[in-house]
């Protein structure tokens, strides 16, 4: 799964994490101040072309070039250009999209204060000023759309290259793999699903971390406008405290509810593969795919799907209740501050957006749990291939029978 695409994965990934940590530490402690800091930060599209932004882009490219160059020299790999440089490009676009969110959050303050002034004192704001603020947002949105479309195009090719690497690796070992249940499906379908799912989860995780790094300081600054929380009273950094506690509680509860889903999803893939294989054999052999056999195989599918639906129902009850409550939670927190008239409309919108960004980052597992369940199932199936290639015993789940209805 990883050896086919990345050079020496057991060493590569820890080294990537370590290098990233060192590069970020050096940036925040020293490099970020080399170009100075402007008294008035750029607003709108100009933010992306500011001296500080361009300096960071150069610093990122230099860090990637050093890391990639070292690996390409010390551990050559046929897919290094895609696995190392491609991953770095995806990481950079994830950072850029977070910067877009920061730019929009900055725009919120000026725009909604403008709206409040127009509604409070008619005639103080001209139509030109109003549309000027909207054009600022349009410029940010245009940049975001352009980068987003180009990124998705690149990611599609990145995923297919990873699938190609896995496909070539498994086909080279096909004589030893063909006897495993559902071998053809694992090579043809699971490789693509694995690459797609890992990329999506990885990008979302990186985006969550980058969003936290970008918005936690914003939320800390905006917390000065909120003096107390309902039922709790006055505490330091109340918005950050509330976001962390709310997200941790929700994530823990939903992970506990959905703990059985990965195993059920694995058995789902197994019974589907058995049914599909019997039908394929029946195309060329009249003795195969007889009605009793097909009926029994489909009964297994139905039983497992019904079990999956039941467990997802429990999970979705908790998830939907939590996410619906989540929509009004920041308003509950801001209730005393809003009633006391201590913030403007623009500041409130900035707080709500920043709180949403931080909260959603902490809720990574809540939002991605269904995808994680699918990935665990795919990983377990491909792990069986890995074991056969290396002559290791098959994972226990490969020989375990599916649970019978009680």
Question: What does this protein structure show overall?
Answer:
The chain is mostly helical. It is 78% helix and 0% strand. It contains 12 helices and no strands. Helix 3 (80-120) runs antiparallel to helix 4 (127-172) and helix 7 runs parallel beside helix 10 (345-362). The radius of gyration is 26 Å and the shape is globular. It starts with 8 loop residues before the first helix and ends in a 7-residue tail after the last helix. The model has no long low-confidence stretch (mean pLDDT 80).
The run of helices and strands is HHHHHHHHHHHH
Biggest sheet overview = none
Shape: globular
Calculate Rg over CA atoms. 26 Å
**Sequence stretches where pLDDT stays below 50 over 5 or more residues:** none
Question: For the terminal residues, how far apart are their CA atoms?
Answer: 36 Å
- Count of extended strands: 0
Total helices: the number is 12
Q: Bin the helical content.
A: over 70%
Strand content: under 5%
Helical/strand content category: mainly alpha
Mean pLDDT: 80
